[in-house]
Amino acid sequence: MTWLRRFTQIGLWFGGALVLLAAVLIGIDVILRKFFAASIGGADELAGYALAIGTAWSLGAALVDRAHIRIDSLYVRFPMRLRLVLDVVGVLALLGFFGLVAWHGWGVVEQSWVSGSRSQSALETPTVIPQLIWILGLISFVIVGIVLLGHALALAARSELNGMARLISTRSAEEEVEDEIRDLKQRQSSERST
C-alpha cells in the first residue's frame, strides 16, 4: 500500500500544480485585459484542460485518503459488518462509473487521434494531447481503486475488519482529530528545526 499511496500523492501534486498554474494564467489574462486591453488567448481553454486533467489525477489520492464526500448520517448507526458491505458496494459503484467513463473516454481519444481533431481556439491544440493525459488519469484511478478494493477484500477474508475499515470506510471524527493533531505536531517540529 505504500507504493500506491506514493503514486496517488504524485498524481495529487501533479493535478494541484495544473490547477494552480491555470489560476495564475487566468489571473494574468484578467490583468492584461483590464489594464492593457490585451489577452493571452486560449487561457480559458488551457484552464479547462488543467481542471479536467487535475481532477482525474487527484481522484486516486482522494480514494486512498478516504476524502471523497459521503453522507453518513445513517451509516454511522449501522453495525460494522453492514457498513463494510455498504463500503464495498460504494467502491464498486464508484469504480463501475469511472470505468465506464474511462471506456467511453478512450473512444473519444481514439476518435481525436484518427481524425486529427484540434481545438477551435486560436491555439488549435491537438485535442488528443489533453485527452490522453486526462484518460490516463482516469485509468490510473480505476486501477488504484481495484488494488485498494482487492486489498480490502483480502483483509476481510482474514477477518481483519478494522484494517478493512481503515482502507475503505468513511473517516470517523476521531480519525479526523487524530490526523489534525499529528499534522499540527509535524508542523510544530519542523518550525522548531528551522
UniProtKB/TrEMBL annotation:
Tripartite ATP-independent periplasmic transporters DctQ component domain span: 23-149
Key words, A-Z: Cell inner membrane, Cell membrane, Membrane, Transmembrane, Transmembrane helix, Transport
Protein's cellular compartments: Cell inner membrane
GO CC annotation terms, alphabetical: plasma membrane
MF (Gene Ontology): transmembrane transporter activity
Its membrane topology: Multi-pass membrane protein
Biological-process GO terms, alphabetical: C4-dicarboxylate transport
Major localization listed first in the record, in broad terms: membrane
Keyword check for NAD: no
The UniProt record lists the keyword Disulfide bond: no
Role played: Part of the tripartite ATP-independent periplasmic (TRAP) transport system.
Protein name, UniProt field: TRAP transporter small permease protein
